[in-house]
Amino acid sequence: MSAEDTAPEPDRHEGAPHPRDTVRLFGQEAAEAAFLDAFNSGRLHHAWLVTGPRGVGKATLAWRLARFLLATPPQQDDGLFGAPEQPTSLDIDPEHPVARRMRALSEPGLFLLRRPWDDRTKRLKKEITVDEARRLKGFFAMSAADGGRRVVIVDSADELNPSAANAVLKLLEEPPARTTLILVSHQPSGLLPTIRSRCRILRCRPLAPQDLLTALAATGTDLPEQTDALVALADGSVGEALALAGGEGLTVYSALIRLFATAPRIDRAAAISFAEAAAGRMGDGTAEQAARMIDLFLTRLARTGVLGPATPEAVPGEAALMARLCPDPGSARQWAAHSQAIGDRVRHGLGVNLDPAALLLDTVLKINACAGELLPAPA
């Protein structure tokens, strides 16, 4: 078995089944219905752009679409026995031969374009290269003889480097016969406008709380006792909920709320203890996870000034704290700017291996200073 065969998959969230192994999709009924309507009406577009926040089921939907297309015979004109019955669901029996081959990545009608394994560095590459995109030429040459449908999944299109993006664009402009392209994108605004314009968009929405919990249960994840906090912080994303449930994210976020309760006059000793614990010196947390929680805190803070405190609050006292620190749209704009600058600095610091405890302490003190610029210290 090669290193690539055992390498982590770039399109699989740690702790969850790969989207190709996920039979059910929750909360995206509207997107599924739009695709099915196009299929049944004979207006199936050759390219679909599946968009939405991270972790809401875009990749799972892409695999459901591919499985449905490859396992469902093309609609035929009315014959001796009348019009064929139209499908009412994208569901395909998990034991269907196409479904089994797709789970094994051996379906000849499917091509998966994603970040490749780098044998030199023993890591996944950071982008989808043009060499990977050029493999499509061989796929179409080999699959043309059987006369059936072909499907290409690009996950994600945001990771295409410029040359690979141009190769995909050429394919969109001159699609081979009987081919459907499905592009997954977390940030479609960053794609080439010409790529977006040649695709029909399927938007995936953040999941409602019950759909989120049901989807989490389907992954086999052990849910923490604080499910209300998990739902509040995940913001409709199964991927984010998995990250929170699998680590110390909820604990770190609660600590942040307690720490900033007295901002802009936080307790320095408490700030040092938080930074050391979050850096892994006094607990199971990691600096990367703490950085994500700080980014989430600042995002929810800036949003409060525009939309009001989130309901339900993730931690007791969160709503009152955020309403005090960010009471209006003007404050929201300032916090949004601070959030961008602070986030960039933390990511750079982690990238160059700065001492994580020192980096987190500096970040906490910077946020406290920003609070001091916006409102007076409490008495």
Describe the structure.
With 379 residues, the protein is α/β, with parallel strands linked by helices. The chain has 2 domains: 185 residues, Rossmann fold, CATH 3.40.50; 128 residues. Helices cover 48% and strands 8% of the residues. The chain contains 15 helices and 7 strands. The protein has a 5-stranded parallel β-sheet, with helices on both faces. The longest helix has 23 residues. It is elongated, with a radius of gyration of 24 Å. It starts with 28 loop residues before the first helix and ends in a 5-residue tail after the last helix. The mean pLDDT is 89.
Mean pLDDT score: 89
CATH-defined fold name of the largest domain: Rossmann fold
What portion of the residues fall into strands of 2 or more residues? 5-15%
Query: Low-confidence stretches at least 5 residues in length (pLDDT < 50)?
Result: none
Q: CATH first level of the largest domain: which class?
A: Alpha Beta
Give the domain tally. 2
Largest sheet: 5 strands, parallel
Report the span from N to C terminus. 66 Å
In helices, the fraction of residues equals 40-55%
Note the run of SSEs as H and E.
HEHHEEEHEHEHEHHHHHHHHH
Any idea what the radius of gyration is? 24 Å
Strand sequence of the main sheet, in spatial order?
Answer: 2-5-6-1-7
**CATH homologous superfamily designation of the largest domain:** P-loop containing nucleotide triphosphate hydrolases
Tell me the quaternary state: single chain
Count all strands and give the number. Answer: 7
- Based on CA inertia axes, which overall geometry fits? elongated
Secondary structure class reads alpha/beta
Specify the number of helices: 15
User: What is the CATH architecture term of the largest domain?
Assistant: 3-Layer(aba) Sandwich
